[in-house]
Amino acid sequence: MIVLDPILAVLLVALNLYWFVVIISVILSWLVQFNVVNTQNQFVSMIGEFTWRATEPALRPIRRFVPNLGGLDISPIVLLLGIFFLQQVIGNLRGSLHTGGF
To answer: CA 21, CA 68: separation in Å to the nearest integer?
Structure first.
């Protein structure tokens, strides 16, 4: 029990960070799509490459099951809902550890 709580806390922090990476990826893709930012800019390209490499392995399997809505990709929303679900499960596990449920 002593080791499990810190592991769950680290998982929650990692999920929170990944949540922000997904959000940044979505916003950056919109900015590129609407020509607000240019991928020829090295910084924009570097951020775009990082977010794509970080999110694509999680989004690719979701895209296989989510129907194509004609140019609207809702797979990031499904991923964010999955992250939220995991955060709630981990939070409940941590709560039950503190109350003696385990």
So the answer is: 23
pLDDT in tens, 33-79: 999 999 999 999 999 999 999 999 999 999 999 987 888 899 999 99
CA–CA distance, 58 with 44 (Å, rounded to integer): 22
Nearest-angstrom CA–CA distance, 77 and 55: 12
- Helix (H) and strand (E) counts for the chain? 3, 0
pTM of the model: 0.89
Sign of CA dihedral 14, 72, 70, 46: negative
| Dihedral sign from CA coordinates of 91, 13, 54, 40 | positive
- Residue indicated by tokens 């596990």: 93
